[in-house]
Specification:
By secondary structure, the chain is of the alpha/beta class. The chain has a domain of 248 residues: NAD(P)-binding Rossmann-like Domain (Rossmann fold, 3-Layer(aba) Sandwich). The protein contains 13 helices and 13 strands. It has a 7-stranded parallel β-sheet with strand order 3-2-1-4-5-6-11, with helices on both faces. A two-stranded parallel sheet has the order 7-10. Helix 2 links the parallel strand 1 and strand 2. It is globular, with a radius of gyration of 19 Å.
């Protein structure tokens, strides 16, 4: 493991909500390797298999399996743990599920975030919080340029609306309680889009659907193969979240600010492009277009982020290109399915090390922190 971020997070107590999920488990493992005391909050383990289990987090960090909508239990964890840093990722994260269970999506993503903010308000200790929402918090009119942090928020589906509601709660709490530089709480907002990488087994996601089918030598059914997405590896936004956490600890001007963390614009590829690139790593990979039979709910076909603000304020930019992103993702799943390597902790840590080494070679400033 390289030395990036170790001077910042070593010995610190870091609370990660959604720690058993895809992004949360990668972040928890990275922080654990950096020497932080990681404490996780999640409602459950979201899938079987799960990255949380196969990457060894079940036995290596402290876990609290509670619902973030339960304010009483949430408060008890905060008051017991007294975290130095909080990374809030817990969410109902699936667009399709949000149409089936809209109320649960709203309460988890909006009220759950408000509960986190209220726990922070009650903290007496110095705490840095990074609150992760989504690129779908923007009012997406599907234009061809990237959304900036001051563009209008909104949403045409329950998931997007719930993230916009969370952003409104964050803004209200910040201006009501945390805007004063003398306050003990500093917070930042992180917005990222579609992420891929090993260990994602969520329902109705492209990469998990592909690898599950291909590992069983079945053809995968694809809706809207010409839809464009800004594909990025899961470690890319996580490096941004960690960078934002550091900057909040040293620069009060960042307090209350929102930042986009997305790939370079040339990584906006179609679903079909991603499948074709993934097929290079699977001996038997077939797919068929099933467009036309999907439900009638709204699903954006184009969404880009402008990350100039993160470059200016945090000196952050993405590391990987599109083929490298797909290669890292495919190799992880190859090891799991083809090589039957069901203890993925060493390989996952190895990928974090490879990513940080490559970032350092390419001059990413966060590797020197």
């Amino acid at each position: 493991m390289s030395e990036e971020f170790k001077n910042i997070y070593r010995g610190k107590t870091v609370l990660v909500t959604g720690h058993s999920g895809f992004k949360g488990s990668w972040l928890s493992l990275w922080l654990n390797q950096l020497g932080a005391k990681v404490v996780g909050i999640s409602i459950d383990i979201p899938s079987e298999p799960s990255n949380f289990k196969v990457s060894g987090l079940e036995d290596s960090i402290e876990s609290h399996f509670i619902d973030i909508r339960d304010f009483e239990l949430l408060t008890k964890v905060f008051q017991k743990v007294k975290p130095d840093y909080v990374f809030h990722l817990a969410a109902q994260a699936l667009v399709r599920k949000s149409h089936i269970e809209p109320l649960s999506t709203y309460t988890t993503n909006a009220i759950g975030t408000a509960n986190i903010l209220e726990c922070l308000r009650l903290m007496e200790e110095r705490t840095i919080a990074v609150l992760i929402t989504s690129d779908k918090a923007y009012d997406n009119v599907e234009w061809n340029w990237g959304y900036r942090e001051n563009d209008r928020l909104g949403g045409k589906d329950p998931y997007s609306a719930s993230k916009g509601m969370a952003e409104l709660a964050i803004k209200a709490y910040f201006h009501s309680y945390f805007i004063d530089s003398s306050e003990n709480i500093s917070l930042g907002i992180a917005r990222a889009g579609n992420v891929i990488g090993g260990g994602d087994w969520a329902e109705d996601r492209l990469v998990p659907d592909c690898v599950k089918c291909w590992s069983d030598k079945r053809s995968v059914e694809i809706r809207k193969p010409n839809s464009t997405r800004p594909w990025q590896h899961v470690l890319e936004p996580l490096s941004g979240y960690l960078s934002l956490g550091h900057q909040l600890s040293v620069d009060k001007r960042v307090n209350g600010e929102a930042y986009n963390f997305g790939p370079n614009s040339n990584q906006d590829r179609t679903v079909k492009d991603l499948i074709i690139e993934m097929k290079k790593y699977w001996s038997e990979a077939e797919w068929k277009d099933t467009s036309g039979g999907e439900e009638g709910f709204h699903e954006a076909s184009l969404l880009k982020l402008n990350c100039d603000k993160a470059l200016k304020d945090l000196d952050w930019r993405p590391t990987l290109n599109f083929p490298e992103t797909v290669k890292m993702t495919s190799e992880w799943y190859n090891n799991f399915y083809e090589n039957k390597l069901h203890d993925m902790s060493d390989f996952t840590i190895q990928q974090i090390s490879e990513y940080t080494s490559l970032a350092k070679k390419r001059g990413m400033s966060w590797t020197n922190k």
